[in-house]
């Protein structure tokens, strides 16, 4: 059964570094569940990676070692998160990063997820080619999306990404692409910038047919 792009889980990790292959772990996850474009649930939890994080990461995320000391383990949090996601498709800003950490944290638990990923950053690069950069904070300002000024905390970033996602769906609607499926958004992310207008025109024509 095709699934709509407006019913997804938007997630964001804060981590001890850039690569789980280098031993980095997740230290916070935040997620927003959208059903038909409405926020129906959120998930936010710190998690103890089992070692002290660097002072750079403490400053960058605002997450201190003291905060992590009393947090539940990654395994405990990720088991809960897997239940929260269920079969939903997922969206993240720079999704390859978040998918790497999700896979690395769920794999030792023997948990597999059935949903697929779409990257809001790649889609924004196609739709907003004039944006100064495609970092989340810059796109939020570029599109005048309401925010509370908090970045690099998982729930705040996933809420911003969810708002950006809905703005992009509205943008597509204004171009005749009504209620696209999730697989279409994945196609947008993979289409070259030069070919994007052709793709959207074709999709709009099919919708009218």
UniProtKB/TrEMBL annotation:
<dbReference type="Pfam" id="PF00929">
    <property type="entry name" value="RNase_T"/>
</dbReference>
<dbReference type="GO" id="GO:0003887">
    <property type="term" value="F:DNA-directed DNA polymerase activity"/>
</dbReference>
<feature type="domain" description="Exonuclease">
    <location>
        <begin position="7"/>
        <end position="174"/>
    </location>
</feature>
<keyword id="KW-0269">Exonuclease</keyword>
<comment type="subunit">
    <text>DNA polymerase III contains a core (composed of alpha, epsilon and theta chains) that associates with a tau subunit. This core dimerizes to form the POLIII' complex. PolIII' associates with the gamma complex (composed of gamma, delta, delta', psi and chi chains) and with the beta chain to form the complete DNA polymerase III complex.</text>
</comment>
<dbReference type="GO" id="GO:0003677">
    <property type="term" value="F:DNA binding"/>
</dbReference>
<comment type="function">
    <text>DNA polymerase III is a complex, multichain enzyme responsible for most of the replicative synthesis in bacteria. The epsilon subunit contain the editing function and is a proofreading 3'-5' exonuclease.</text>
</comment>
<dbReference type="InterPro" id="IPR013520">
    <property type="entry name" value="Ribonucl_H"/>
</dbReference>
<keyword id="KW-0378">Hydrolase</keyword>
<dbReference type="GO" id="GO:0045004">
    <property type="term" value="P:DNA replication proofreading"/>
</dbReference>
<dbReference type="InterPro" id="IPR006054">
    <property type="entry name" value="DnaQ"/>
</dbReference>
<keyword id="KW-0540">Nuclease</keyword>
<protein>
    <recommendedName>
        <fullName>DNA-directed DNA polymerase</fullName>
        <ecNumber>2.7.7.7</ecNumber>
    </recommendedName>
</protein>
<dbReference type="InterPro" id="IPR036397">
    <property type="entry name" value="RNaseH_sf"/>
</dbReference>
<dbReference type="GO" id="GO:0008408">
    <property type="term" value="F:3'-5' exonuclease activity"/>
</dbReference>
<dbReference type="GO" id="GO:0005829">
    <property type="term" value="C:cytosol"/>
</dbReference>
<dbReference type="InterPro" id="IPR012337">
    <property type="entry name" value="RNaseH-like_sf"/>
</dbReference>
